[in-house]
Design a protein that fits this description.
Number of strands: 6
Protein name: diguanylate cyclase
Distance between the termini: 53 Å
EC number: 2.7.7.65
Strand content: 5-15%
Order of helices and strands: HHHHHHHHEHHEEHEEEH
Number of domains: 2
Helix content: 55-70%
Strand order of the largest sheet: 2-3-1-6
Largest sheet: 4 strands, antiparallel
GO molecular function: diguanylate cyclase activity
Shape: elongated
Number of helices: 12
Radius of gyration: 31 Å
Keywords: Membrane, Nucleotidyltransferase, Transferase, Transmembrane, Transmembrane helix
Pfam families: GGDEF
Oligomer: single chain
Structural class: alpha+beta
Amino acid sequence: MKQPIQNRRGYSLDDASPTGGLSWLAQLRQVWSDSADRNLHDEVIAAQYGRVMACVPLLYGAVAAMAILAAYGSGGEFQWQHHIFLPVLFILVGIWRGGVWYRRRREKVRIAKMRKRLRETGLVALIVAAIGGVWTLNAFYDTVEARRVLAPIFVTLIALSGAICLNSLPRTAIGMTVVALAPSCVAMAFSDDVALKAVGFGTLVIAILLAGMISHHFATMVASIELRAELRELAETDALTRLSNRRALRSRFDADHAQRKGKAAYSLLMIDLNAFKAANDRHGHAAGDVVLQQTADRIRKLCEDAICVARLGGDEFAVLLARMTTKALNARMGALRAAIARPIPFEDNEIVIGAAIGMATGSDLSQLLRGADRALYAEKAARDRGDGTAAAA
């Protein structure tokens, strides 16, 4: 039977639900401890921003519509500040914030700005919820007993709309639910009217249920992001050497090129091992694996400043660097040749190999690969002729 792929938290990609026994309280603690993988915070922010972008205009439209209905339904039984002023305030805020997010829908923004806008949205939502909570409490005590439940019902509808639309921001969603509903729930719970007590406790039950659903939704969203990251890492990592593969080289180049707005130049070193096939044939495939792993470690240590160190396939490696001077590149290639040429212990033997290195500079990855490949084979041809000449493009 095929087993579902799971991430480190025990979430399955097949059903997007907790399979590792993560309880509701554990999910709620996860929301407040912000325990997502630190390396994935930017991806979580981007996912939250995208979902808020899709939902917030609808949310504020719903807030404005609910405020209109509240003003209409309250009639003359409420004082003017409850009947007119606060509903109009909600309508204006709804139109304003909905319009702000609608205008942002086609913008391309950096993670830092996304984070700032999400904090801003959370703050506005909490302020609106607090105003709604106070409004409800005042309206509850200022109106005739027969219509007291009207204001709590409307603020509950607004709070539920906000929590549903902002469920990818769990702290904001849960916080605004508490801030908006707590005053009216407490007031109804301490009322002498049994029906109002029942409504108050019923609203509290719904709020607790909603907090659990929001926590579960967020935990599932984070787990899905983590699982996608792990699958992406598997797809972009060479299993033997743990270096990046050719796909990842392209991805890293594109990301760096985009970040530098296409104005950067790069240096690419292509490395091909000498005598690897002979060592592999003589000592076996296990020895060949050790040689590739040790070589990869040596290249990685010498190229910690690289944008990407990749195994392209077989015994061929590539190092993508920000553009360097010819002198610095020659020094780096000399250090790589010396490091790769050091004996590699295997069982009772020492395996000695060497490396041919081709170099190219430019701003297009395909051209870099072709140029470094030509330089690499020119060096190998020169070595075969015995003149020791190295070539570069």
